[in-house]
Write a structure and sequence with these properties.
Blueprint (H helix, E strand, L loop, with lengths): L4 E6 L7 H17 L1 E6 L1 H4 L6 H18 L7 E4 L5 H10 L4 H5 L2 H9 L4 H16 L2 E5 L5 H18 L7 E3 L34 H10 L15 H14 L3 H7 L5 H24 L3 H30 L4
Parallel strand pairs: 1-2, 1-4, 2-3, 4-5
Helix pairs in contact: 3-12, 3-13, 4-7, 4-13, 7-8, 9-12, 10-12
Bound molecules: adenosine-5'-triphosphate and L-tryptophanamide.
L-tryptophanamide binds next to strand 1 and helix 7.
Length: about 325
């Protein structure tokens, strides 16, 4: 039996942070053994907000290196840059002809992002490009953070609509969200998700942060009122810190609460700061070992493999909709 496929991607639009790592990349690692995996650096998504060309190139390569340092293994998974496979934009256009304005107007990420910026057509159409990414590979499982589930649902809708109109062509994808860590919140505001486009650098811990600087961010992180260490919804700032602790140190939140009985925030934060600093030190050492040339080679091989799958799918799609061969 052929194995099922999984696909996911991250935009090279800023420094990747702990939220991207815990909420996304980390869940990809076990999937490489279970599925035929495709992990993409989605540069065409990143340009839906203005990017400096030289910086975009640098961040695209850096993001690929982060995948490798996090444990994506190119002998198991296909790692590639989205723009290296032109079929993504071709399928985007075809899906644009079946996507409805009302499908896209409901997307919360667009509503959030368009408030503060110009209303670019590309930003509005962003979820359809994401649907193209997913459907091109007959993806069964899409690992993402909670904020992306709505977009995967759009991909399901478009796949069904296409299949109904033109015959069975696309696999209907399932989103897969990890329960803990699906949404790591900002250190300066536990009501908003940790984000690389946050206004303050005290919002996030970047994977490239100096470990000492990261410790300071933890010591400065907002906390709720009260002094005991408890894990509950009405203390969202502490809950978020315990979640991070729990994921990096592989202990349950309950174990952590028990460890800090009779102790206060200061002890808890000091230990969490050490755990994060030691994680960053190890991660950055792995990253430093990956050369630009090695990463470029992985991306070239990956693009070739991805193009093989994508071009076969596009031939099928063109035929279904009646384009002349
Ligand atoms: P921005 O912060 O600029 O909105 P982003 O950090 O969401 O961007 P993306 O490239 O859009 O970055 O997201 C990459 C992946 O990381 C997605 O699967 C997303 O769900 C996940 N992710 C992003 N932020 C968090 C977070 N705070 N907690 C958990 N997962 C997150
Ligand atoms: N929109 C996603 C990134 C992304 C993606 C995908 C994720 C683009 N294409 C396909 C999963 C599958 C985000 O995280 N902002």
């Amino acid at each position: 039996m052929e194995s099922q496929r999984t696909f996911s991607g991250i935009q090279p639009s800023g420094s990747l942070h702990l939220g991207n790592y815990l909420g996304a990349i980390r869940q990809w690692i076990p999937l490489q053994d279970e599925y035929e995996a495709f992990f993409s650096v989605v540069d065409l998504h990143a340009i839906t907000v203005p990017q400096d060309p030289a910086e975009l190139r640098r961040k695209t390569l850096e993001t690929a290196k982060v995948y490798l340092a996090a444990g994506i293994d190119p002998s198991k998974a296909t790692l590639f840059v989205q723009s290296h496979v032109p079929e993504h934009t071709e399928l985007l256009w075809i899906l644009n002809t079946i996507a409805r304005m009302t499908d896209l107007e409901r997307m919360t990420q667009y509503k959030d992002k368009s408030e503060s910026k110009e209303n670019l057509v590309g930003l509005f159409d962003y979820p359809v490009l994401m649907a193209a990414d997913i459907l091109l590979y007959d993806t069964a499982v899409v690992p993402v953070g909670e904020d992306q589930v709505q977009h995967v649902e759009l991909a399901r809708t478009l796949a069904r609509r296409f299949n109904d109109r033109f015959g069975e062509t696309f696999t209907i994808p399932e989103p897969r969200v990890m329960k803990e860590g699906a949404r790591i919140m900002g250190l300066d505001d536990p009501m908003k998700k940790m984000s690389k486009s946050a206004a303050s650098e005290y919002n996030f811990i970047a994977l490239s942060d100096d470990p000492e600087a990261a410790k300071k961010k933890i010591m400065k992180a907002v906390t709720d009122s009260g002094s005991e260490i408890t894990y509950q919804d009405d203390r969202p700032a502490l809950k978020n810190l315990i979640t991070i602790y729990s994921l990096l140190d592989e202990k349950s939140p309950q174990e952590i609460v028990a460890m800090y009985q009779g102790k206060g925030y200061a002890d808890f934060k000091r230990d969490l700061a050490e755990i994060i600093a030691s994680f960053l030190t190890r991660f950055q050492a792995r990253l430093a070992h990956i050369s630009d040339d090695d990463a470029m080679k992985v991306l070239r091989d990956g693009a070739e493999k991805a193009r093989g799958v994508a071009s076969a799918k596009m031939r099928e799609v063109r035929e279904r909709i009646g384009l002349l061969p």
